[in-house]
Amino acid sequence: MSQVVEKPTARPVTPLGILAKQLETILQTLDKMSADELQANLNQAWLLAAGLDPYLEECTTRESPALAALAQKTAQEAWNQRFHEGATVRELEQEMLSGHVEGQTLKMFTHMIKAKKVLEVGMFTGYSALAIAEALPSDGELVACEVDPYTAEFAQAAFRESPHGGKIRVEVGPALSTLQKLADAGQSFDFVFIDADKREYVKYFQTLLETDLLVPGGFICVDNTLLQGQVYLPEENRTPNGEAIAQFNQVVAADSRVEQVLLPLRDGLTIIRRLP
């Protein structure tokens, strides 16, 4: 008679795994801890969690002066006021900026795959577009889709201050309409970055494949695919955007035309490769 051998439980080795284990231990022994012990354990967990993002920033190549200036300008903009004045078509916030680490990731990825034609779906103030453009060759091009005329002009003003801004062409209008226009014109791209309306993610993905906007062997990077953890929380804890991203992740995982990996970078970054 064969004996079932139980696999030993692996100890957590990632910062998030260790943090989860620490919090689990606190919950299990809470009634046995003194106030000082509880404070010490919570402080240790807080240090582990709070130190991660600053450390990633510290160990990542510094952003260019043009990107730093754009990030600062975005942070200083009165976005809530602009919306109430009617200047923007939707409510915006500085946190929508991709930021230093993700920007450098996209830039590095552009170098790695030697991308020459890039499509961005959702530009905001142009940080990610400019980061990618910095990695494009002199004859490379990035087409950025942006629905908001105010942010489009905001971004273009920043592009004019960068030696790489001339590689970026901005298309203002609803992203799906722009995608169809590009497809009708016979355009194709070897790299696409999606960071737009979360409820349209599935349509963006399907359009890119069905119209051949994404070349066989091409890549898509999709932002916010963890959406603040909502995608793996119970459904009742999800916002409409959280539910939309959870559905998108399932659609991609079930699609035999692609292979993908979801990275816990910032708010989740999924890298998708269209199979040849």
From TrEMBL:
GO terms for molecular function: methyltransferase activity. It comes from the Bacteria. Keywords: Methyltransferase, S-adenosyl-L-methionine, Transferase. Pfam families: Methyltransf_3 (PF01596). The keyword Ubl conjugation does not apply. SUPFAM superfamilies: S-adenosyl-L-methionine-dependent methyltransferases. One of its GO terms (biological process) is methylation. This is SAM-dependent methyltransferase. It comes from Brasilonema octagenarum UFV-OR1.
